[in-house]
Amino acid sequence: MKKKIIIHLEDLTTAQEVLLQELLQTFCVEQIEVLEDTTSTLLVGDLQIDVDRRQVWRAGNLIELTSMEFDILYLLAHHPGQVFSARQIYEAVAADSFDASWTGISSMVYKLRRKLGAGIIETVRGHGYKFVAPGTSLK
């Protein structure tokens, strides 16, 4: 008898993918469905990102962000420490927008840094940008 397993994981590492393949074989599972986290608020240090309301607070203070700034912040914060090139960010959050280009991402990251404070989004020279949880350093 084939069974369906639903696993709630945000991201799969290579080791997790191997484990899932072993589960498929061991338990004769036909399909594994991976669902994204349905939590509507992302908390990172003193930064709170409310996905449903598209609002951001830092240390209890509401930070006014444009739609594109919010999307960039959420993308980076949802994958802390992962480096995204400007083109990857553009393709993930703005590819359908007529008023932006991937070359403008650095300007939007600059504005985000001014609004959120230094140290939240780091530049990885020659590669792109990464999110660093407030009060930590991911090197």
Automatic annotation (TrEMBL):
Q: From which domain of life does this come?
A: Bacteria
Q: Which Pfam families does the UniProt record give?
A: Trans_reg_C
Question: DNA-binding: present as a keyword of the record?
Answer: yes
Which keywords appear in this protein's UniProt record, sorted alphabetically? DNA-binding
For this protein, the record's InterPro entries field holds: OmpR/PhoB-type_DNA-bd, Sig_transdc_resp-reg_C-effctor, WH-like_DNA-bd_sf
PROSITE patterns with a match to the protein in the record: OMPR_PHOB
Q: Describe the location of the OmpR/PhoB-type domain by residue ranges.
A: 39-133
Give yes or no: UniProt keyword Iron-sulfur.
no
| DNA-binding region extent | 39-133
Report what the protein is called: OmpR/PhoB-type domain-containing protein
> What is the organism field in this record?
Enterocloster alcoholdehydrogenati
What high-level taxonomic lineage is stated for the organism?
Bacteria, Bacillati, Bacillota, Clostridia, Lachnospirales
